[in-house]
User: Fold Purine nucleoside phosphorylase from Thermosporothrix hazakensis.
Amino acid sequence: MMQYENVAEAVRAIQARTTLKPRVALILGSGLGDLAAELVDATAIPYAEIPHFARSTVIGHAGRLLLGTLEGVPVVVMQGRFHLYEGYSPEVITFPIRVMRLLGAEILIVTNAAGGVNPAYATGDIMLLKDHIFLPGMAGLNPLIGPNDERFGERFPPLAHAYDVELREVARTVAQSWPDLTLQEGIYTMVTGPNYETSAELRFLRTIGTDAVGMSTVPEVVVARHMRMRVLGLSLISNEATGDEEAEVNHEEVLEAANAARPKFTALVRGIIRSLQ
Ligand code: 6GU
Assistant:
């Protein structure tokens, strides 16, 4: 397939700028991008300079790939990701995952800001993804639709264990050393956005077992699992979204919550990566 050649071309362009071979791939979501500043000996490559990469169009998403080390572990970091609501296809959104895998990354850590649908969740909590519901995927926007390239993975990949049990255990252990950090564990449901949900939609999401709702992450996880990467997912709960609250959510509020939680979020991710040494 054409796509494999495109991925290989992007990989070559990146390898022309650094010899670093990443072990871990990290995607930083809305307002969480500043962990990138903590990379050691980082090479930063704007998405515009990588063949076949799309551009990030959302405020709060920088749009560059960084390769460097964090806690001594070689990592590749996406500072800013692509979303379906920007108008990109599922294939375009997940192209960077294929590239990071072929660069050598075996573990994917995905982060996002999400609405807390579970009434027990509070703004500022962090949720470990234990499973997901991929509503756009079930409705036809699955990135694996189309001819399957066996060089990437199998035609019908299982997703029963999408979120790695051992990595979650590591995350729980690291979180214990941060007393002001409430670590939840639950189900992330992806919607396309860009509008936030109606109250009725939020009550529907609750009914089907959603703990947190957001507009990203799941396409990347599906493609990472297609390529047999081990996945850890972390949602920052940026607002309550039970369907019963009075206040309306807005993008500024989401970014503010991400800002406020940034130090503990950063510490958690750093701690997890340190334990991978
Ligand atoms: Cl309430 N909904 C969605 N879809 N995404 C979000 C969110 C809500 N809060 C943060 N991200």
